Hints:
three-stranded mixed β-sheet, alpha+beta, ten-stranded antiparallel β-sheet
Amino acid sequence: MEKTVLYENIDRLVQYGLTTGLTSEEEEIYTRNQLLEVFGEEDYQENDKTGKEVRTEELEDILKNLLDYAAEAGILKENSTVYRDLFDTRLMNCLLPRPSQVSGKFWELYKKSPEEATNYYYKFAQDSDYIRRYRIARDIRWAVPSVYGDIDISINLSKPEKDPKAIAAAKLMKQSSYPKCQLCKENMGYMGRVNHPARQNHRIIPLKINQADWFFQYSPYVYYNEHCIVFCGEHVPMKIERATFVKLFDFIKLFPHYFLGSNADLPIVGGSILTHDHYQGGNNTFAMAKAPMEQTFTIPGYEDVEAGIVKWPLSVIRIRCKDETRLIDLAEHILNKWRGYTDETAFVFAETDGELHNTITPIARKVGDTFELDLALRNNITTEEYPLGVYHPHQDCHHIKKENIGLIEVMGLAILPARLKKEMELLKDYILNKKDIRSNADIEKHADWVDEFLPNYTDINEENIDDILKKEVGKVFVRVLEDAGVYKCTPEGREAFGRFIKTL
């Protein structure tokens, strides 16, 4: 590839920085020189593209050209997604302000309004390519109606899959304990390695939560609008306790247009990272938040707090009050009661053989001038029949979703694995052409499911097959949520739920 192509695309990248506001005009030459250094270039020639406006959607093309050059020139160790991601993150960092400048601007805008601050920071996270817009756009999303409201489904394609060479290289690498995990504050500016993403283009916002140092950032894979992560400055494990509720509301008071929730603190019902205390939130209204309370009740000593059972497949208690301290007190009371609660007839055990089973997934938000807290009751008991968890997706749903049901799914958004895209395409072909699904190793796991729903449709054709598959995937996910509910939405289930509420 010609040097002129390199210079042209370096100029386009600098111009992208100027257009988005990542780079100030007085830093144009400095930024160009930083980029030349990354490529080991001592020379530079101006070209006719220099100074031309660059649109944000051009970034993917600019980075592709620069990465292709780096691969041809032998600058990349391997021309694979992992090594390309490590390198282009380094390139993007050349355009960016220092961390204190980003947080300084954030808090300056916060004085005008919390919305202005988060709007700036969310745009920055995208412009800096920390959130890769062009990859997020490839995610497949749709909604399916259910008795619980419209449930959101997504097939996550934005998280890059590691190639075999990178996996092999990662195995041979000396184990590093720096940063301790992918949430630690030490990720900011970190160059990355084959088994840890580069984060040179990462900037985090410091916060005071429950009188301690916490930080605010966006998820690089934004599963929903303004999907943020709030994490502890120290690498300490997740724990659901009174302090959890305090921290959730401390954040909500700072950003009343956001919700914030926590994964549970036990394996099976918890999130993927239990080793680092963190919460997830954002500017999004999920199906669970829209779901009404199907019955209300009063808890003695908390007559001023509205409480009820939410019409939702998981077992959710919603409490509402204008005074968040009352919600914190009541949430602690409910949590303590639930931690120690056993009801053998409903197959709820606080512990077996010394292992604790009961915990809560809490979600806090503000609606008008009222604070709201949803408490999803969770239990992680296993049996021989359900070795992955009784209140976990059951085996007949594993062809769609086998993983833990964490906070995001609890609220009504399915994050389904990327493999489903290819499998749905294959299923489409096999159904339309009446081929034997069980003869194909990639999709045989779906055969029983297809056999079950096909008789419900008299005419399946090229025009409606996509909608049918999406609808049926959605139905399975609703089943997944019902499996995760400790108390089922049946008269027996509601009676058992009522027995727990009476203990409060």
